[in-house]
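MODEL INPUT / OUTPUT PAIR
PAIR INDEX: 1
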Amino acid sequence: MQHHAFVRYRELFLTAWKRSFFRHPLWVFGILASCVTTGGLIQASGQTFSNITSSRNFFEQIYATPFLGQEWIAHFIERMQGIDPTRMVLVLTGLTVLMVLFLIASFVSQGGLLHGLGAHKNSFKENLQHGVSSAPRLFLLGIFVRAVQWILVLGISVPLAVATIDSTPVIALVYVICFLIFFPAILLLHGAAQLTAIDIVRYKRSFHTAFLEAWRSTLKNWLVIFEVEILCFLLVALAFTFVLLCSLLLTVPFIVVFLIAAAIGSSGLVITTQVVGVLVFAGVFLAFLGAATTFQQAVWVELFEKLHVAKPQLIAKLERLWSRLWSHN
C-alpha cells in the first residue's frame, strides 16, 4: 500500500455517491452493518465520550460505595424473586440466541456491503457469500478494536474520575495530558479499523496482517483521514436535516386524517392511520440509515483505493495546480 495520499475531495465524494446511492440493494446490508459501524469518525468520537462518562461514573461508584453495585444487585434480586424460574430461563435463552444471530448478521452484512462497494456489478447472493466468508475475521477485528478502545478509554476515564474526586492542579494536568494522548489514538484506531475491514474483505488477509498495514498507512495519512471524515460527517448531517424536515412535512397529512377520524369517531380509521404512519416513518428511518451507512462505507472504500494507487504528495500537488491553471486558461 502506498503510504502518502493527496486526495481530491470532490472527486472522492462524487464517486462514493455514485457507488452508494444508485445501488439500493446494498442499503439492506447497510442497515444491519450500522449495528457494527457506520464508518463515521464523529460517531466514534461520540461513543468514546459516552464510554468515558460511563467509566468515570463506574470508578466514582467504586470510591463512594463500600460494595460495588450493591444497589443494582439488590434491585435485580428483588425483581427476580417475582419471576418463574422456567420462564426466566426461556426468556434469557431466547434473548441470547437473538442477540447472537443479530450480531452474526451484522458482521455478515458489513462484509457483504464492503465487497459490493468494491465491485462494479455483483449480485446480492454473491455479496452475501463474501460477507459470510469474511464475517469471522471481521468479528475478530471487532473484538480486538473494542478491547484496545476500552483500554484507551480507561486511560482517559481513570484520571477524570480521580480529578472529579480530588481536583488538584497536578491531577487535572495529568488528565489533560492523557486525553491529548489517548483520544487521538482512539480516532486513529477507528480509521485503521475501517481500512483493515476493507483489506480483509477484498484481499482475504488475516485481521492482524491487514491491521498492521492499515495502521502504518493511517499514521502516514492521519490528516487526510480526519479531513475526509469531517467532510463526510457534514454531508451526512445535512442529509439528516433534510430528511428530518421532509419527515415533519410528511406528518401533516397523517395528523389531518387522524383528527378527522377522531372527530367522526372511527376507531378503525384511527388505528389504521397510526399503523400506516409508524410503518412509513420506520421505513424512512431505515432507508436513511442504510443509505448513510452505505455512503460512509463507500467513502472509506474510495479512500482505500486512493491510498493504494496514490502518487507522491509533491507530484500530486503539482498536477492539481497545473490542472487548475489549465482550466482557467
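PAIR INDEX: 2
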Amino acid sequence: MRGLFVCVGVFAVASLIRGQGWQPEQLLYSAPAGQPDQKQSCGQMPSTKVMICVYEAGLTGNLHVYEVQSANGGLTWSAPVQVTSESGGEFDPYIAVDPYRGKLWLLYSRNAPPGNDLIVRQKVCASCTWTTGTTVIADGANHWDAGLVVLNNGDILALETLEGFGGTAPGKIRSVRSSDGGITWQAPSMIIDESGEETFPRAVQKVDGVIHLMFRDRSHGSKLQIGQLWSGDYGYTWQGHSVFQYSYTQDQWFSFIGSQGGYNVTVVANIAGYVNHWVSWDNGNSWGGPYQVSSVPGGGDAEMAMGCRGPVFTLSDSAMNVWEKRYDWYTSCQ
C-alpha cells in the first residue's frame, strides 16, 4: 500500500491540474484455461487518438496475436480482431510507435522449428489491416522476447533475446537494424553477452538522442536485476553496463522503459508479484520509485503506452488474462 500511495504522490501535480488520477483495473482479455504465456503491448496511432493493443491468445501450438482498439483513451475497447494466423503459432508481440512515418510497427516471434523467427508488420492507419509479415531474422535459432525502437535518424532497431529460457544456451542480447524503413534487415550485432543471462531488451531514445537500453540481467548476484546500457551513436556501440536500482532481496522482472513525453521517462518491472514503476522527470538522471501500479496479482510482463488521457499500463495475471490500468491526466481525450 505504501507504494501505491507514493505513486499517487508522484503524479499529484498532474492530477490536481489536469484530471482524474488512477482508474480501476479493466479486463481486456480473458484467457482460456491452460494458455501457456502472455505478453501484451500498446501504442497510439500517430496523429490520432486511437490506442491499439495487441496480446497473445490461444493454447500451445495455436497461439496467435489479437488486436483491440480504443478511441477514448482506454475507457472502452473494440471487439478483438485476429492479426496473425501463421503456421505453428505467433507470440511475444511488441508495438512501437513511429511518429516520423506516421505508423505503428508490430514485432513478434513465430514458431519455426527448430527455432523461432522474428517477424515485423506495419499499420499505417487505425482502420487499416496490418501488412503481411516481413522477416527480420530466421536462421533456426531461438529469437524471442524482442523489442523495437524507432530512431530519429530513420533507422529501426529490433532488440532480441537470442536463445535463453527454452533455447540451448544462456540468453544474450543483439540488435538487428533496418535503414530503409523496414524493407530489409542487416546482420545481427551483439550488444551484450556476459557470464550470466541477459534477456528481454527494451529501449527508448531520449530527447537528447541517447538510447537507454534496459534488460533482465542475471550477471550480478543471485537475484534478477535490471541491467542497463547507453548508446550515443544510434545503437552502433554501447557503454556503461550497470544495474538499475540494485536489490539484494528480491527479483526485479523488468519489462518496459519508455517516455511519457519530453524529459519524463518510465521504467516498469514486476516485484514480488505486482507491477511497479519508476519515474524520472529529468531524462533519467534521477528516479523516484518503485511505486506499485496495480493490485492485480501476477503482474506478468507489463508495459506502458501514452494515450489521449494519459499513461495506460497493461499487464497480465497468473491466469494469462490481460488488464488495463490507467492514470488519467485529463477528463477527456486531448
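PAIR 2 NOTE: The radius of gyration is 18 Å.
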